[in-house]
Design goal:
It is globular, with a radius of gyration of 21 Å. It has a two-stranded antiparallel sheet. By secondary structure, the chain is mainly α. It is built from 13 helices and two strands. Strand 1 and strand 2 form a beta hairpin. Bound molecules: fe (ii) ion (2 copies). The site of one fe (ii) ion has 6 residues, from helix 6.
């Protein structure tokens, strides 16, 4: 998964070197906050540091659970077929030096030589992407909070549960591959990265999907496309820097994300067919809340605004931008034929207009934010041994 989009970054501000408890301004998509970060005490070895919204739960009317039960067979015939058989799937080892082979050291040497040509800001993006992928336990948990589709036993044989487990298993290769690759480059501080992963998984995520598969499948449709775009862009940049192997790795991961996007957008397409009004309202609800990125609670124990800083670098390198956010929204509006939906309720009609015109408004805001972002500061990132990177 990918990045947070900064719709109105206050990048003209000069951030001090990151340290705990600095009051640097947080430009956050999470604005209604019900708790403040707590300091860890010896009696409480871990408590989430980042703030989350008021937690709304089980907002889907109970009778709608039946819709998902009735879609069991449809999901088997339309969604499970999008999974790849394990025997035909790529594995991280296909792209990494084989530790058993005679040529292992030579291959590692070549990998490290290629990686020397790549600048630090690129590594900040790739590390952020890898950390996001590595928080996969959180995403599987999120899917298993959903009413009507959760895996009730851990080995449930419903189509929804099979999808969630197999999706997780496919995604699991993404973090594995990027993690091992980055380790071999010798360019990044693995201990700081591993700490960030531990903090992030411990903190969870706050997508505001309220146990509703309507909200969550809209969220995942958006996210899979966002990751398809960001991995595609890190691949393109790796190629520009002359690392074709890394480009191939990013492209391979991006192709998985695209297939997952197909699955989730298909589910939402079906929901639009069965329940156009409810799905329209859910789509508008997610867009009103803004799609927070999966790793938005990221923390390395040093930088209070780590996620915002990582996102700013990704934005500057064009790995994932506010324009991409607007483009994804446009794509989904077209994919689900939202403009042409008819027979909606009063509220459905009203939010249909909101959703269909939102991308244009976001692009306008983005242009103004870009103007303000001209004097971006440099800040140190723990992931690259505290070296400075321009935001
Ligand atoms: Fe992924
Ligand atoms: Fe994904």
């Amino acid at each position: 998964m990918a990045l947070r989009v900064t719709l109105a970054p206050e990048m003209a501000l000069c951030f001090p070197p990151p340290k705990r408890n600095t009051k640097s301004p947080r430009v956050s998509m999470t604005s209604t906050i019900n708790s403040s970060p707590k300091d860890e005490s010896p009696k409480k070895p871990f408590s989430p540091r980042r703030e989350v919204h008021l937690q709304v739960t089980h907002s889907m009317p109970p009778h709608k659970v039946e819709i998902f039960k009735s879609l069991e067979e449809w999901a088997e015939n339309n969604i499970l077929v999008l999974l790849k058989p394990v025997e035909n799937s790529w594995q991280p080892q296909d792209f990494l030096p084989d530790s058993q082979s005679e040529g292992f050291y030579e291959e590692v040497k070549e990998l490290r030589e290629r990686s020397r040509e790549i600048p630090d800001d690129y590594y900040v993006c790739l590390v952020g992407d890898m950390i996001t992928e590595e928080a996969l336990p959180t995403y599987q948990t999120m899917l298993n909070t959903l009413d009507g589709v959760r895996d009730e036993t851990g080995a449930s044989l419903t189509s929804w549960a099979i999808w969630t487990r197999a999706w997780t298993a496919e995604e699991n290769r993404h973090g594995d591959l990027l993690n091992k690759y980055l380790y071999l480059t010798g360019r990044v501080d693995m201990k700081q990265i591993e700490k960030t992963i531990q903090y992030l998984i411990g903190s969870g995520m706050d997508p505001r999907t309220e146990n509703s598969p309507y909200l969550c499948f809209i969220y995942t449709s958006f996210q899979e496309r966002a990751t398809f775009i960001s991995h595609g862009n890190t691949g393109r940049l790796a190629k520009d820097h002359g690392d074709l192997k890394l480009a191939q790795i990013c492209g391979t991961i991006a192709a998985d994300e695209k297939r997952h996007e197909t699955a989730y957008t298909k589910i939402v397409e079906k929901l639009f067919e069965i329940d156009p009004d409810g799905t329209m309202i859910a789509f508008a609800d997610m867009m009103k809340k803004k799609i927070s990125m999966p790793a938005h609670l990221m923390d390395d124990g040093h930088d209070d605004n780590l996620f915002e800083h990582f996102s700013a670098v990704a934005q500057r390198l064009r790995v994932y931008t506010a324009k991409d956010y607007a483009d994804i929204l446009d794509f989904l509006v077209r994919r689900w034929n939202v403009e042409k939906l008819t027979g909606l309720s009063g509220e459905g009609n009203r939010v249909q207009d909101f959703v269909c015109t939102l991308a244009t408004r976001i692009r306008r805001l983005e242009e103004r934010a870009q103007e303000r972002a001209k004097r971006a500061p440099c800040i140190p990132f723990s992931w690259i041994y505290g070296r400075d990177v321009q935001l």
